[in-house]
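Example 144, ligand S-adenosylmethionine.
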Amino acid sequence: MALALPPGGRLVACDRDPRPLALAREYWAKAGVADKIEERLGAASESLEALLADPAQHNSYDFAFIDADKKGYRAYYEQLLRLVRPGGVIAVDNVLWYGRVAHPEEADKNTAALQELNDFLLKDERVAFSLVPVGDGMALCTKR
Ligand SMILES: C[S@@+](CC[C@H](N)C(=O)[O-])C[C@H]1O[C@@H](n2cnc3c(N)ncnc32)[C@H](O)[C@@H]1O
């Protein structure tokens, strides 16, 4: 994503674990994009809330990618809807969850969270919803 940014473009990377951020940092440097990336270490809900505390950040992001704890997706989606501009896209990873979402009998909490999220996104009139069946499924929600 950072490689696709135009000059002056900026990417905010959130993770609660410093280890993947440290690994990612090596590759940002190798790719020559480290100066475009701002790290936020901590729970994603808190990092996003900190961004929302600045009104200048509202409706300002072109694109967001959610790929973390499945039960948190719905809350991150609501926060990101406020940060992404109209016409911007929120991509949500894992929405097919290796096919498990198609099985109502799957009772584990991650599958249930993704089943509920898909039902919600499909009906959410604030976005145009597409589900791309690559990998284990990616939802593309374009903010109206
Ligand atoms: C599947 S990995 C993401 C990989 C990343 N999208 C990539 O392509 O390199 C999931 C990440 O979510 C992070 N994570 C899980 N729960 C989180 C939370 N509540 N807040 C922030 N990050 C979280 C984990 O530490 C882990 O690094």
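Summary: The mean pLDDT is 96.
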